[in-house]
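User: two proteins, same treatment. go.

Assistant:
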Amino acid sequence: MPKKRVDWKQFPFTEAEKRDFDRFGCAFKVDAGVFHIDWRERTRDEALKAAIFACLGRVNTKEGPLALLAFDISLVRPLPRYSYFPFDLANSKHKAYLTKLTTTGEIKLYFVSRRQMTERVHRLSEPLRMRASAIYEQCLGDLQTYGADKYEFGRALELTERWLRIPELLERRLSEDDITEIADVAKNAARSISEENIDLAQLVVREAENSFGTYYQKNPRAVEVRLLTIVEGITYMRDLQRTFGGHREGLEEFLTNALASSLSRVELENVREVMKLAGLVMERASDSLAETEIGKLDGLLQVPRGIIDLVRLAVVAKRISPNALVTLAERLGITVEGKRGRPTKDYSRECELRMSGKTYTEIARQAVAERQELRDEFGGRDYDSLDRAEKLLVWRRIHQGVITHAERAGISLPSDANTDDEEKNV
């Protein structure tokens, strides 16, 4: 069904803003700090009744970062209307608005129908506002890493629109209204439950909080990234299943070409070892599950935890180059270009320490003491309090960082003759 035409003469929109309606589903009047939502098939009453969900998203492409404000607006949940607006991080007015948004959480909206505009004010929940503030800070950090003088908003936007789906930023199962309704139902139901059961349930909640809450409070970003990675990985596997189904030969050819065109022979051998290790873990997991009676999870407790960390450690141990991993990810279509990956670090300090004669273990210990991001990654602990796997992870990261920095800077490092023994003794 074709969209009804808006009588643009009734509204003070520029030509660029009219194009934004068609491209993004909304237009932003930066001086007024107001978003105009394309509502041309709907009425004023429907605008007043519509449910609004909004959140700030971040995309870091190889052409630079973007912050996007995404909207999910619906009269009924199965048919939401998505719109979004990308912010130019080199635009001082855009940055000023983001600063205000992440401080107040307030979003002013006008729903534009055929001949009128309906005003709404939406407020981010406090957790969403805090999350938006963190995302904006990350965007500014990405911009600094990329180089503000090299930033090209248009090219970054083109890459984003090529790969990103706006529903990914807005995905959720429960709205705030849903949670309120569920909470009321649970509260009413609990009134008929014995005090003993209430006390036991409260004990379970508090013990869970004691077990996991402290780590989450210290590492909220790490937990969020890991959860998102799990969701994205499962979605990607479903995509492959949907595409190839039972056509094993097609999937095998797809993966073979991606690996062969991304990794060297040595790296392929290393990946082969990692896959053998992962296969053994998965086999043990399935054996444990098969031995478990329905409704019991005791067998699962025998499954080694941290499989992702184990595989990551194996990859780091084998020194598969980051560039090869990025190339493989792009071959498989997993990431927005430049979206994933550890930001480039400056290892000049560690390189100077190596030149002064310090061992990599001494440098790793000092790096953890001096680098806040490393301490945050490991829950605020110092190097000596890490377990051996964690020490190896830091040690190898520092070792590779020093070597890479030296190669780029044309520096001749002291001999690495004793490095293998040092690594074994970490």
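Protein 2:
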Amino acid sequence: MAKALTGDMEIHWTTIADFISGNSAKVQEIFTRVLIYCGELDLIGGETYAEDGLRLPSNASIENSGTIEQLQGRVELYKKMAEKHVMRHIAKDEKGEIDEEAQESFLKRQKQLHQRIEKMQNFVLTEKDKIGKEGQALQSNVTDNESAMIKSPKGFIQGYIGIAIADDKNQVIVSAEAFGTANEGEHMPLMLDNLLENLEAVGMTVDKENPPIMLADANYFSEDSLAACEERGFEAIIPDVQEKRGVDGEGNRKFDVNDFKYNEEQNKYECPEGKSLEHKGIAVQNGVEREIYQARLPDCKSCAKFSQCSWSKKEQSKLKQGRKLLIPKEKKPLEGGTQCGKMREKLGTEEYQAKYSKRIGIVEPVFGNIGYCKGLNRFTLRGKEKVNAQWQLYCIVHNLGKCLDAYNERKRCA
């Protein structure tokens, strides 16, 4: 893109970095303008969309990650390393083994250690732990504290997730944003809001009488994601997260909380086999208050589907308590069953399985183009705002390629 704008000149990487850093706020505006042009070329169908995320490392050291307590422990470790380094140097000096080169190497290493100690110590003294949704301390990062420890296909990385929603007709990216969190599914409501704003700019609306389809993989399977789609006028098709977690020894899907029906009148749950889980009080887990519901031990020990509640049927004889559910107090059960339960029923039909099968063909080529063809294999900037601008610029280039193809096709047909 930079070479095209400058007449094929080779632009130094620092110039490009400075441009992105100084114009982050303008990138979203450019993204919208390109999307409007895509609409003028009739490249957006508006009937089916697919959302997914590309997990990439950022310009941050994974060695500088940890909770505040862990980082404080690392500071003490670096101090001991520096002390031992000095003692070894003194011992060699007493033996006359230190020449000018060794002295220079010693001073260089000491400088590195003290810089690392000072940087990490300042971070520990000025920052607090990032807190997760359930009140647990998350890992911070000294280099870029807006990035996150993320599980990727290549293992754990310190980085961001670039999320995109692509339209089925021509794989145009209609919503794009980067997030420094480990869970991409929690951002679906925001991505949908961005999508609606972008569609409005293009001059398109969502017909709630004939809702467009929103496809996503199991990372997005949750009550919140499914409810967000329904509230905004999209028909979500998202597979059960249990498909990723596995099945029991007989090939049956594991039961989770969404398989249990809530009886509001009696304030209890009913398991898939019709046994009751009575309310047993409140527990605090990771700083979150949860309602406890538990089944009777005899009911679980005699249950034919015990293996779908436990990892092994061998555990049945050793069982000391019945199946327990811990329900966050703010999570009120939905009337008529959960969204997750309804989604499982839909995906049990051939019709919805056929619809979901389109997901890979819509969004995966987008990431293949950006990652392989455009060469984005890591985010080179630091901070959510700058990384987001870099992600959106790559998405803009992707969309411009779609515009160019359509423009050239029109010229040939003219």
